[in-house]
Specification:
Elements (H helix, E strand, L loop, with lengths): L1 H16 L7 H4 L8 H20 L20 H10 L8 H18 L5 H13 L9 H19 L1
Helix pairs in contact: 3-5, 4-7, 5-7, 6-7
Length: 159
């Protein structure tokens, strides 16, 4: 537990300073199954604050590369989270495993989701279906990702 907490705290500090690429935010959402409620609540607050910070930013900062839009940073972690979950070692199409995936997706929505960005999540989910998976270049990547995308749709509607 100490290693996991230490890693996530170091990740928080590095992301807050802009020392790491934005793609590293994806790992923070694996805290959905954190057994320590106090630490999990701390992660939720931090992720919500970061999402709010990026939504309220005007797109200009020293870590902004080539003027790219910074207000969608947390929303852009969604495709990476889907990919990460599709290749998670615990992933299978068994009901219990799919329940775990719903927990991850609900945690993500709790931290990042607002009434204004749900349509964006659906758009990104459609784009993920069209992408080819570099880790699994044959047609099976769609089979791995499709159940998660269906769960994401259900999660968004029920959230």
């Amino acid at each position: 537990m100490q290693v996991r907490h230490g890693f996530l705290e170091a990740l928080q500090k590095a992301l807050g300073r802009g020392a790491l690429a934005q793609r590293w935010y994806t790992l923070c959402f694996l805290a959905a199954f954190e057994p320590n409620d106090q630490f999990k609540d701390k992660m939720v607050r931090w992720l919500k604050n970061r999402a709010e910070h990026y939504r309220n930013s005007n797109g200009k900062s020293r870590s902004n590369r080539a003027g790219t839009s910074r207000h969608l940073v947390m929303e852009k972690t969604f495709p990476r989270l889907i990919h990460l979950l599709a290749h998670h070692t615990d992933f299978s199409k068994e009901e219990n495993d799919l329940d775990d995936m719903v927990t991850y997706l609900t945690f993500y929505l709790e931290c990042v989701g607002t009434a204004d960005n749900y349509a964006l999540f659906f758009h990104l989910a459609q784009r993920v279906k069209q992408a080819r998976d570099a880790l699994d270049p044959d047609s099976s990547e769609v089979k791995r990702i499709r159940p998660i995308l269906l769960l994401k749709g259900v999660s968004i509607y029920t959230f």
